[in-house]
Amino acid sequence: MRLHDPLEYWARRRPELRVATGPDGVSYGEASAVTSAWAVRFGELGLRPGDRLALASANHPDAVLTLLAASKAGLVTVPLNPRLRAEDYAGFLRDSDARAVVGSPSRAEALEEAAEGLDLPLLLIGGERPGWQALRGWPRDTEAALPVAAEPIALQSYTSGTTGRPKAALLTHDGFVPVSVRWSQAGMRFEPGEVFYLPLPIMLMAGIMMVQHALWCGAAVELDEFSPERALAAVRRPGVAGATFVPTMIHMMLEAAPDTPPSDAGLRWILYGGAPVSPSLVGRTRDAFGAKLFQSYGCTEASAMTLLTPEDHDRALGGAEHLLGSVGRAALDCEIALLDAEDRPVAVGEIGEICSRGTHVFQGYAGDPDRTAQALRAGWYRTGDLGSVDADGYLYLHGRKDHMITSGGINVHPEEIERVIGEIPGIAQVAVVGVPDERWGRRIVAAVVATPGSTVGEQLVVDRCRATLAAYKVPREVVFLDALPLNATGKILKHVVREQLAATAVAAP
Ligand code: AMP
To answer: Who's near 82: CB < 8 A, 6+ residues apart?
Structure first.
């Protein structure tokens, strides 16, 4: 199975169906012809199977077509986050040894700067620009044969990371199959012709995975740049059957329209995940959108591993509230184990490192045998996430191994504290970190962002923590900030928060 196989399947059966919506949208039939022509053209530019093709694009249908054309040509796409700076791109182009760059107009300047001196073909999505070849300007039909491609790697994906230097995860074509199998089996499907709304950056693994799933079903993708208003309008549009958000996006949508009644336009399901979510947000989401909810836990290196199904959400909202703190149970054909520092399975309820194995697991980090060996040990992929499993098999996350705070010699999981603070009305975001401290080793500090107009103060936060948590877990300090640093998926960059707070702490008398 290769990334473009679902495209070809539907192009043969239902060529008239749209694969992408909007003014630049195309049908499966057109997309099949265009991607074949582009694949041949990549070959004419000198790209050979296994070569790296850098792709830094905003959410545009041609980003999908580029991925599929690269797949046909046997190229390994290097998706680059569209929010990066020129110097980041320069590092990735060199690190991946990219042979051509595809970009959208908003990224063109940064990419030009990054590619300076590298003599790479520059290929533009959706527009025209001197020095760039416009992909849409390439001839659409071609007599030449497609290259014979036997490259198992589909993507070299730099992990978005919340802890430091990015790693280049090598992901196979075959690794995408189990995701669609799992989601279809759990009922997260589309009928051919239905629309999938995606406001996540398609350059991130979650975006590509979801697009692949939509193609697998013969659906059309509606790629968008997120704003609460646009997303609210989209999920109420007839034909839009499914959507994916990260929790921050849902929060913003509910803030923008807190009292809108559910739409009966046809939205059947919402998949959320990627970051911790508060139970109250889950309840509000179901009430507001009237759609089935799925949550998944996954990462770049091991795609989607668990599912909290609509039935789980029903049980949770019907009284088994603890389930809302869970990311669900292992998905079909996905082995998950919780291992201790000596690679032994931990007991039910105990905390261990979440490890997984199966076809969904990546092949290693490009050019980085050390970190590959650390991550892929004894047949398991070590996620770096801490978790526990209850007697029914539900997985609970306890944060990243490297986010754990050792304060006064005791390990504290910041996520537990964040859950308590995140439930306080008037708190929009929270990050709990350990700041260097002479007495405690690490002092627990909560960085919070209040919602506009909120009157929540430090004392209330501390009181709430005291009422719910053991004394040693109560933050020593609560710092109110205007915003928290986020990565492109909306995840809080904890190491940046920690550095910021440590810097202010040192500066303070
Ligand atoms: P990335 O590789 O950038 O996709 O980040 C993956 C990380 O996001 C995981 O290792 C988790 O720490 C976090 N994550 C993924 N899914 C969830 C979820 N459903 N709830 C909470 N955190 C999640």
So the answer is: 56, 57, 58, 104, 106, 107, 201, 203, 488
pLDDT digits (tens, 9 = 90+) for 158-204: 985 555 567 999 999 999 999 999 999 999 999 999 999 999 989 88
Ligand 1 near 84 CB (within 6 A): no
Which H/E stretch holds residue 81? none
Q: Mark residue 399 as left, alpha or beta (left: phi above 0; alpha: psi -120 to 50; beta: remaining).
A: left
Residue whose CA is at the smallest distance from ligand 1 atom 8: 274
Q: Please tell me if the domain spanning 177-401 has the same topology as the one spanning 404-504.
A: no
pLDDT at residue 128, rounded to an integer? 92
- Ranges of beta strands (E only) in 309-379 are 326-330, 335-339, 352-357, 376-377
Best residue among 299, 354, 385 to mutate for probing ligand 1's pocket (most ligand atoms within 8 Å of CB) is 299
Residue whose structure tokens are 């979440």: 354
- 404-504 classified as CATH 3.30.300.30: yes
On whether the CB atoms of residues 475 and 435 are closer than 8 A, the answer is no
Say whether 315 sits in a helix, a strand or coil: helix
Largest distance between two CA atoms of the chain: 74
Instruction: Using alpha carbons, select from 375, 474, 433, 476 the residue that is nearest to residue 162.
Output: 433
3-class DSSP assignment, residue 253: helix
Please state, in angstroms and rounded to a whole number, the distance separating the CA atoms of residues 328 and 390: 11
CATH for 5-151 (3.90.25.10, 3.40.50.1820, 3.40.50.980, 3.40.50.20):
3.40.50.980
List the beta bridge partners of residue 81.
Answer: none
Q: Is the Cβ atom of 160 under 6 angstroms away from ligand 1?
A: yes
pTM: 0.87
Tell me the C-alpha distance between 368 and 166, whole Å: 11
298 Cα–ligand 1 center, Å: 5
267 CB contacts (<8 Å, ≥6 apart)?
235, 236, 240, 241, 242, 243, 289, 290, 291
User: Could you write out the DSSP letters of every residue in 163-183?
Assistant: SSS--EEEEESGGGHHHHHHH
